[in-house]
Design goal:
Elements: H1 11-23, H2 29-43, H3 54-63, H4 69-86, H5 114-124, H6 133-148, H7 152-156, E1 163-164, E2 169-172, E3 181-184, H8 187-202, H9 224-237, H10 253-268, H11 273-284, H12 290-314, H13 321-326
Antiparallel strand pairs: 1-2, 2-3
Length: 327
C-alpha cells in the first residue's frame, strides 16, 4: 500500500485531490510539490477537525510574499482548486472568488523567421576553435528546437539512446507532465543530427545509449543557464535581439514558432484548426488541449497582420463615387 506523502490534518483530502488530478492528467510533479507546500503550511495552522477559513487563506497568501509573481499564481491556482474540491465535503471551507486569483500575463511571443534561425546557427558555428564540438552543440540545439518545438529542458536531457535515426524519431521521456512521447524528425533535422553525431564520435565522448546527446567539455549534460546565456548573446550579435537588458525574443519562442508554423500550414491546407489541436497538444507534450489553445491567438494575429500587408500592397483603391458619377 502506497504511503501518504502528506502529514497535516488535511492529509487524506490532499491525497484524494492529488489522485483525482492524476486521473485527468493534471497531477504532475509541479502540482505535487505545491500541495506538499500547502500541507506543510496547514500542519502549523489546523488542528484535527479544523477548517480552511478566510483567515487561514489570507495567512497563507502572506506566507508567499517572497515568491515571484509567477510562482504565486501557480500556488494560488492549485490551493483554490483544492479548496473548491474540499468544499464538497466540508461547507465551512473558504473558496476565494475566481477574480481574486491574479491573471498570468504572457509575453507576446516572437515568431522567428527561417532567416533568423539560420543567422543564429551560423554565428553558433563560429564559437571557439574551428570545428569545435561546443559550436556544434549550440548550432545543432538551435536547429533542433526550431524544427521540433521541444522544450529546452527536453532537448538537453536527450540521450544517445533517445535518437532513432532509422525511424527518424526522438523519444522524449518523463517530461513536464510525467509522460513520454515520440517526436518525428524532418529530413533536415535528421541530416543535422547525423552530422553532429559524427563530430561527437570524433571527440571520443562516451557513446553508450545512456550517455547525454549534447555534452559540455566534461562530457556531461550542459546546463540550461549555460545554453540560454549563449543563445541570447548570439541573438544579439545577429540583430535578432536588442542590447543587453532589453526584453526581446526568447528561447521558448522557438517552441511558439514551431506551433504557429504548424497551425499556419494546416490553415493553408484548409484543415479545421480546432480539430487539429489535440494532435498538436500530443506532439508538444501538453497535458490538455487548453495548454495549446493560446497558439491559436498568435496564429490568428499573424494571419491578420499578413492580410493587412497584402491589402496595403495589392489592394484595389476605393472608387470615388463623386468622380465616378461625373464620367
Amino acid at each position: 500500500m502506497a504511503t501518504c506523502i502528506f502529514r497535516s490534518s488535511m492529509a487524506f483530502r490532499l491525497e484524494s485531490f492529488l489522485a483525482t488530478r492524476r486521473a485527468v492528467g493534471g497531477g504532475n510533479i509541479s502540482t505535487q510539490k505545491i500541495l506538499r507546500g500547502i500541507d506543510s503550511f496547514l500542519t502549523g495552522e489546523l488542528k484535527p477537525g479544523g477548517a480552511i477559513t478566510r483567515e487561514v487563506w489570507e495567512r497563507w497568501i502572506k506566507s508567499m510574499s517572497g515568491l515571484s509573481p509567477g510562482s504565486q499564481i501557480n500556488r494560488i491556482g492549485v490551493f483554490r482548486q483544492f479548496c473548491l474540491y474540499l468544499s464538497h465535503f466540508d461547507p465551512r471551507t473558504y473558496v476565494a472568488h475566481r477574480s481574486f486569483v491574479p491573471r498570468r500575463t504572457r509575453p507576446v511571443p516572437y515568431i522567428y523567421t527561417l532567416s533568423d534561425v539560420r543567422k543564429i546557427m551560423a554565428a553558433a558555428s563560429r564559437i571557439g576553435p574551428r570545428g569545435s564540438l561546443r559550436a556544434a552543440v549550440v548550432s545543432t540545439l538551435v536547429g533542433l528546437l526550431y524544427a521540433t518545438g521541444l522544450r529546452i529542458g527536453e532537448a538537453l536531457k536527450l540521450t544517445i539512446g533517445d535518437v532513432d535515426l532509422k525511424r527518424n524519431v526522438l523519444v522524449i521521456r518523463e517530461t513536464k507532465f510525467g509522460k513520454s512521447r515520440y517526436v518525428p524528425l524532418s529530413s533536415s533535422a535528421v541530416r543535422n543530427l547525423r552530422a553532429y553525431l559524427k563530430q561527437r564520435s570524433r571527440s571520443r565522448f562516451p557513446a553508450s545509449s545512456s550517455a547525454p546527446l549534447f555534452v559540455n567539455l566534461k562530457g556531461t549534460q550542459p546546463s540550461q543557464v549555460w545554453f540560454t546565456t549563449i543563445f541570447l548573446e548570439l541573438a544579439r550579435q545577429v540583430g535578432v535581439r536588442g542590447p543587453k537588458g532589453q526584453p526581446g525574443p526568447r528561447i521558448h519562442d522557438l517552441r511558439h514558432t514551431f506551433a504557429v508554423n504548424r497551425l499556419l500550414a494546416w490553415y493553408r491546407e484548409g484543415d479545421n484548426l480546432y480539430a487539429k489541436l489535440p494532435l498538436l497538444a500530443t506532439y508538444l507534450g501538453h497535458s490538455t488541449v487548453t495548454g495549446t489553445e493560446h497558439y491559436l491567438h498568435a496564429t490568428a494575429e499573424l494571419l491578420e497582420s499578413a492580410g493587412r500587408r497584402f491589402h496595403s500592397h495589392f489592394g484595389v483603391p476605393p472608387v470615388n463615387k463623386r468622380e465616378n458619377g461625373k464620367n
